[in-house]
Specification:
Elements lengths: L47 H6 L22 E10 L3 H16 L6 E5 L13 E2 L2 H6 L12 E2 L2 E7 L4 E3 L13 E2 L2 H14 L3 E4 L3 E6 L5 E6 L2 E3 L5 E6 L2 E10 L6 H10 L10 E10 L9 E7 L8 E7 L4 E9 L9 H9 L2 H7 L3 E11 L15 H5 L10 E2 L2 E3 L15 H21 L9 H8 L2 H8 L13 H15 L39 H5 L14 E3 L4 H10 L3 H4 L5 E5 L7 E5 L9 H5 L5 E3 L14
Helix pairs in contact: 2-4, 2-9, 9-10
């Protein structure tokens, strides 16, 4: 069946749909949810007859259980030109650019954006200092449109912390200077981008989790399907069960953010990492504070490295003073850390206790908390030992930690591919630009395609390599790998200074990432336990108290979305050899080892999936690579504010 609904459908409350049931022809699907803004439904896509007669051959992915006939019911299908998975900066920029091009030429190109959060921005978390370069290209009149870029950066500092001291790192390289940039809430920025998308005719549906990639018989991507709603923890349909829905498209753009769950499956199917290096990641943990007005320094931007991390561990903190006495405060820990006893959340709490940070927070209050993984890999090209190579030659070699971006029927955009500029400590502008370039390639392909075969956006990958995104990432390609020397952070600071101040990307060599992040964790017997101070409840807090500030909720009695493949490995390997690192690297208290009621004197892994803030760190750092993060029911997860 084919159905077309209006934008702004929200997946949080089925009861609110009573007043619109007549408009959807008594069709009960997960799309029957609360309208987040007051707007009427558009006319159904196609005739009602085609709506009734259209079918799908795909079924729910349920295994090892008796098959309930509802699980094999045909799914309803919505046909579109382009479907975009993820309403973040890259996904929305792609959608806006597609409609701009179509509207300018008077062509009908239908663009649908699917977002798993309950509302736009609810799962969006970043520093964030925004470089408006891509925004200037996409929406040159953004100031007149009321973009929430209200606080320009007025003061930049980079410091090295010891436990008590704060040492300025001078001179500040130009790549790290933020003149012309803005301190923003990316959460608010994404909401605004969504409004701009709707104005040009993009259909944005929040509250729906894309859980499956659909394929044509020739192996090309056909679109995505949303997950079934109303399953219990054993994958059995409950009374409110609703079959998922298919979105079939000529082009599917995946904008899932860092380490996307569908992107992982695409990597395997199309071998997108062939000839590339592995990606390397970090976890970013953040709080939003409202501070004493007397301590507020509008436009102040601080970055710090050093304490509380040891010299072998890459990471650091940030503090941004935006408007209205709001401070964006966070800490980043690279996930290639070696000490199994390191606890990223508790390192963040220690960071806040530093005199240079604490003085800003005293007398203030926390508004919001959250965490997310981020890509750090960049454009390291591999397999070259040449003494001389330039960017034009490197382009034809490989893309480093960035995978191949295109495949038949679709493409990867934004942070799901990994365009973060690590020295700049920002990637939103690159993510947006990648979405815009993919949109231009998709539009050209759709409007000029006369063949019946799948569309491959070769022009998108080529345009990325010819863009300022490529040059920007190429110029800083050696920064993150320079941490891999025996000197650790000291060698990193020395080399990075030389690279950014003098070499500026022109070095005739390219450093490499050594190992996947999970592979470097040391067994407990080789690590020294870390003593962390107890939280004071004023500046530092208990983990679960912080999680309560994330607004995280998950429907009770649904399948656990953190899938452990081998049930024995968490105890036999992770606990016995590494002393249970999942209980420390998770920033939401999801994992804990408890007494096994069925086996006296034994432990078992308990998964508190209701706490999950969707950071995906477990999927990356688990030493056994035994955890698979998949999407829960649409609308579940955090509900971030001002992040």
């Amino acid at each position: 069946m084919i159905l077309r609904l209006s934008p702004k459908i929200n997946g949080s409350n089925i009861l609110s749909t009573l007043r619109i049931r007549a408009r959807v022809l008594s069709y009960k699907t997960p799309l029957l949810h609360k309208i987040s803004h007051q707007s009427s439904l558009k006319q159904p896509f196609g005739s009602y007859k085609s709506f009734l007669n259209s079918t799908s051959r795909s079924y729910a992915s349920v295994t090892n259980q008796e098959v309930d006939p509802r699980l094999t019911a045909e799914r309803f299908v919505d046909e579109t030109d382009v479907v975009i998975v993820g309403a973040g900066p890259s996904g929305l920029s792609a959608a806006i650019r597609l409609k701009q091009l179509a509207n300018a030429e008077g062509k009908e190109v239908r663009v649908v954006v699917i977002e798993k959060a309950s509302e736009l921005g609810a799962h969006t978390l970043s520093g964030a200092v925004l470089e408006p370069r891509a925004l200037n290209e996409l929406l040159p009149d953004w100031k007149e449109r009321g973009a929430p870029l209200n606080q320009p950066v007025l003061k930049d500092e980079m410091r090295f912390f010891t436990e008590k001291l704060s040492i300025p790192l001078l001179p500040l390289p130009s790549v790290m200077k933020n003149k012309g940039n803005y301190i923003v809430s990316l959460n608010s920025y994404v909401k605004w981008l969504g409004e701009q998308a709707e104005e040009v005719g993009v259909e944005v549906y929040s509250g729906f989790s894309a859980s499956e990639v659909l394929y044509n018989e020739d192996g090309s991507v056909r679109g995505i399907a949303t997950n079934d709603m109303g399953l219990d923890k054993n994958f059995k349909p409950k009374e409110n069960f609703e079959r998922g829905m298919e979105f079939q498209a000529k082009v599917t753009l995946f904008a899932e953010g860092c380490h996307g769950s569908l992107t992982k499956t695409l990597m395997r199917k199309f071998n997108l990492r062939e000839g590339r290096q592995q990606q390397t990641y970090a976890i970013g943990i953040k709080e939003v504070w409202e501070i004493d007005p007397a301590k507020h320094i509008p436009g102040y931007c601080l970055h710090a490295t050093g304490w509380p991390l040891d010299y072998k561990t890459y990471g650091g903190g940030f503090m941004y003073h935006m408007e209205n006495n709001i401070v964006q405060l966070g800490f980043i820990v690279a996930l290639d850390y070696q000490n199994t006893y390191l606890h990223p959340y508790k390192e963040f709490q220690r960071y806040k206790s530093h005199p240079s940070i604490r003085k800003h927070l005293e007398g203030g209050k926390v508004i919001s908390y959250g965490a997310r993984a981020l890509n750090e890999g960049g454009y390291q090209f591999t397999g070259l030992t040449l003494s001389k190579v330039d960017a034009s030659f490197a382009k034809v070699c490989v893309g480093g930690s960035i995978p191949k971006l295109v495949f038949p029927g679709g493409a990867l955009i934004g942070c799901t591919a990994g365009f973060l500029n690590l020295p700049k400590i920002k990637g939103t502008h690159n993510a947006m630009k990648s979405g815009m370039l993919a949109a231009e390639a998709a539009y050209d392909a759709i409007t000029s395609d006369t063949s019946s075969g799948p569309i491959t956006l070769t022009a998108y990958e080529e345009s990325i390599q010819d863009s300022w995104v490529y040059k920007e990432l190429y110029d800083v390609r050696n920064i993150r790998p320079s941490m891999n020397s025996p000197l650790g952070v000291y060698g990193f600071i020395l080399y990075s200074g030389i690279e950014m101040l003098f070499l500026k990307g022109k070095a005739p060599w390219t450093l490499k990432h050594h190992h996947p992040d999970h592979a470097v964790l040391k067994p407990a017997k080789e690590c020294k336990p870390i003593e962390y101070p107890k939280p004071d409840g004023v500046i530092t807090f208990d983990l679960l108290e912080s999680v309560s500030r994330s607004g995280t909720t998950h429907t009770e009695n649904q399948p656990v979305h953190l899938r452990v493949r081998d049930k024995k490995l968490p105890v036999d390997v992770n606990l016995k050899i590494y002393d249970g690192p999942e209980g420390r690297f998770c920033p939401a208290g999801v994992y804990e080892f408890v007494d096994d009621e069925n086996n006296p004197n034994e432990k078992r892994l308990q998964i508190n999936s209701q706490n999950c803030v969707h950071c995906k760190t477990c999927d990356i750092k688990d030493v056994s690579q035994n955890i698979d993060w998949v999407t829960p029911e649409g609308g579940n997860g955090p509900k971030y504010v001002l992040t």
